[in-house]
Structures are given as C-alpha cells and as structure tokens.
Design goal:
single chain; about 190 residues; 6 helices; coiled coil; TnpC-like; Transposase
C-alpha cells in the first residue's frame, strides 16, 4: 500500500524533477558548445541553457564546465604548437588584404558619388531659364505679399497699443475723479 503524498512531498518532487531537467540541459549545452568549438564560459552556458548563473556554479555542474574549459584551453595550445592557429604574419597579411579592399571600396564610393553629383548637375542644368525666371517671379511676389501683410499687422498692433494706453489713462483719470468726488461727498456730510 502506498503512503498518501502530502502537498510538500509533491512540491519537493516537482522541484527535484525541475532541477534535474535544468542540470541536464546545462550539461547538454556545454557538450554542444564544445562540439561547435564555441568558447565556454559560465555566463555563456547559463544564457544558452536559460538557467540562473547560480546553477552553473552549483556542485556537479561547475566541475563539468571547468573540465570543458580546460580541454578547450589545451586544444588551443596544441593548435598553436601545430600551427593551426593564425600566426602573426598571417594576421598581418589578412590585415593588408582588408586594407587593400577598403581602399578599393572607397575609390568606388568616390566614383559613384561624383557620378551622382554630375547627374544632379545635369538635371538642374536642364531646367530652362524661363522656368527659373517664372519661379523667381513667383517667389518675389509671395515675398512682397508677406512683407505688406507684416507691415499691416505691425500698423494694427501699434494702433491697438495706442488705444490700450489711452483706455488705461482714461481709467486712471476716472478712478481719480471718483476718489475726489467721494472725498468731497464725505466732507460735505461731515
């Protein structure tokens, strides 16, 4: 007869299964990275496996990752000794080839840029003189209209400013007259 499982037992079993699945996934990722020749790092393994950084440092997982890193480091040393890795001369040659290709691409870019500029110049040159004169006349007329509208607006503004000043002066005078009248009325009653 099986004992009845409590919710804590069920949760403990689920966590154990989840932990086992994550650890298995981490180990599979390490083996995959090793097979592809990708550099193995703790952070890289954690990201690739989709697990926390803590798990890759956990006992049983950390040792596997460290062993894979050591085997990669040993492999790199052997490749350097065997000449499989790029030498300084090889890298310098690659750099010179890249620079040469870059010069070629820059020259081509400059040629294309000059061609586009010539094409645009021709398009501007093809516009007839009458079209340009008509456009200049149109812009001059629009400019004159805007200038006269601005002048009228400035005149209206000045007129309204004068009216406002006169109204304020009239208001001040009316207030003063009212005060004087009230003072005279109060004296007459006293």
């Amino acid at each position: 007869m099986t004992a009845k499982r409590t919710p804590a037992d069920v949760l403990r079993e689920a966590r154990k299964q989840d932990s086992l699945a994550k650890r298995t996934r981490v180990l599979a990722v390490v083996d995959e990275m090793k097979a592809k020749g990708e550099p193995i790092t703790f952070l890289g393994v954690a990201k690739a496996a989709g697990v926390s950084n803590w798990l890759v440092y956990a006992e049983g997982v950390r040792e596997h990752i460290e062993a894979a890193r050591k085997s990669q480091a040993g492999k790199e040393k052997l490749e350097r000794k065997a000449g499989a890795a790029a030498s300084a001369a090889s890298i310098a040659t690659d750099l010179e080839l890249a620079r040469s290709e870059l010069r070629t691409l820059r020259e081509e870019r400059d040629r294309l840029k000059a061609a586009v500029q010539r094409s645009l110049g021709q398009q501007v040159g093809q516009t007839t003189q009458t079209e340009l004169v008509a456009r200049i006349d149109e812009l001059t007329t629009a400019n004159q209209n805007l200038a006269s509208k601005l002048s009228r607006t400035e005149t209206d503004r000045d007129r309204l400013q004068n009216q406002l000043t006169e109204a304020q002066d009239d208001l001040i005078a009316a207030r003063q007259a009212l005060r004087n009248m009230m003072r005279d009325q109060n004296r007459a009653h006293d």
